[in-house]
Amino acid sequence: MSRPASNGSTAPDPGSSELNPLFARPGEAYDLPKFRFPAGEALPETAYQVVHDEAMLDGNARLNLATFVSTWMDEHADRLYLEAADKNMIDKDEYPRTAEIETRCWTMLADLWHAPDPRHTIGTSTIGSSEACMLGGLALKRRWQKARRAAGRPTDRPNLIMSSAVQVCWEKFCNYFDVEPRYVPISEDHKVLDGHGLEDYVDENTIGVVAIMGVTYTGMYEPVAKIAQALDAIEQRTGLNIPIHVDGASGGMIAPFIQPELEWDFRVDRVASISTSGHKYGLVYPGIGWVVWREQAALPEELIFEVSYLGGQMPTLALNFSRPGAQVLLQYYMFLRLGFDGYRRVQANSRDVARYLADQVAAMGPFDLWNDGSDIPVFAWRLRADHADKWNLYDLSDRLRMKGWLVPAYPMPDDLTDVTVQRIVVRNGLSHDLADAFLEDMRAEVAYLDRLDGPLPHESDRPTAFHH
Ligand SMILES: Cc1ncc(COP(=O)(O)O)c(C=O)c1O
Fold first, then answer.
1. Which of 64, 223, 320, 330 has the highest CB neighbour count under 10 A?
2. Does some domain include residue 466?
């Protein structure tokens, strides 16, 4: 709010929100502080306008080519969302139909992912893939501990094997739950975890291997069946039976529809559990993930709590307690609305747009594709060494941002930290038309950068790691 300063001029107070002069009715809030509680009430319209105006400054979600998360649903979904905004997922006794729908959803996923007996396995919704991965990881850890205890062996040094390109949720899991992370570095020859050299990482303390269907950095699939074969060979030699958790944050909702022949799911015997984000290619607004186990025995029952204070005796398997129930209903809506064929068409369309964009980016000249968007509809590219004299991918990212497009550039993880890539995530809503508009802007910005007479000055504090 502008206030008269001591010299009579008006100066903005950085600690308050400035209100449009139209807000001048009697009873209207005059001063809404930013960092402490306002002393009194504001009219709802005033508070709404202040929040609305500030949120307006966020980026345009449709031009955000960085995120995997849904930014659009249809108006029926919006209506359902509003109707269900008050439902707490944990109140399963009060909202038994929402609880039933949750069970139907993960059972549908168990079926989609070829669980041997979908109606008699176990799964749950979560707030996103991170929580789902942590539950998958906890089940691996507990199963290993139980087996070790039964064999009279120590249980104090569990380790988990994964690619150096895992999403940060796995680093968190290891940190929060005292598991040693064993990262297998990626390289030009092994761009993803593919089972190569796995025997150097596995030992009797290994609780499992994480395989990612849709690596965050590039969108590439890790070959789950090949990783399983490497583990089979290790088992033959050592007797160690190591299970796999598939992090299908994105690919869990892509592969079944557009690469149905690819065996990455419960068809691979070693896969004990699979997680996905309902809010990525599950096509629901942020706030929903899923995890499903191959069979009930894969989830130690001590991880399930029975609580009585919700009314009735209710099982709960989750890291947090309360969370929105609306997203579960939205997921069910999407499953019913699209069915298998609808999902197939939506995902195939995103894949076609990604492949088209990748071809066009490759044809521009300065770039080498890292991958071409044919796994999940995500691809990355790097700048050719013979084109890196005046500008880099961070400069291009900045130039594109000036046109509203968010296209991140970042270094790859170990052992490729000297490689910088730029990535596009194609989601439902990025049409061929929008893709053409983007390409036009990108070509113009590349031409602008190429016309510079000398190299652009660079800051030294570019990011050294990337997680999304
Ligand atoms: C492979 C992978 N795993 C896990 C996550 C975490 O997902 P969420 O944001 O749903 O917690 C992501 C997010 O991008 C991811 O790409």
1. 330
2. no
Domain encompassing residue 29: 2-58
252 Cβ closer than 6 Å to some ligand 1 atom: no
249 CB within 6 A, ligand 1:
yes
On whether residue 413 sits in a domain, the answer given is yes
In a domain? residue 114: yes
Q: 163, 169, 213: which to mutate for ligand 1, most atoms within 8 A of CB? A: 169
pTM of the model: 0.93
Residue-level pLDDT at 460: 67
Residue closest via CA to ligand 1's atom 13 equals 468
CA of 311 relative to ligand 1 center, distance in Å: 34
C-beta of residue 361 within 8 angstroms of C-beta of residue 369: yes
Last residue of a domain, one of 308, 335, 362: 335
**How far apart are the CA of 407 and the centre of ligand 1, in A?**
18
Number of domains in the chain: 3
Residue at 67 is within a domain: no
Q: For the chain of 468 residues, list the mean pLDDT of each consecutive stretch of 10.
A: 46 78 71 88 88 88 91 96 95 89 97 97 97 98 97 98 97 98 96 97 98 97 98 98 98 98 98 98 98 96 82 80 96 98 98 98 97 97 93 97 95 94 95 96 97 86 52
Q: Are residues 265 and 395 in the same domain?
A: no
User: Structure tokens of 306?
Assistant: 């029975």
Asked if residue 250 and residue 368 are part of one domain, the reply reads no
Measure 201 CA to ligand 1 centroid, in angstroms: 24
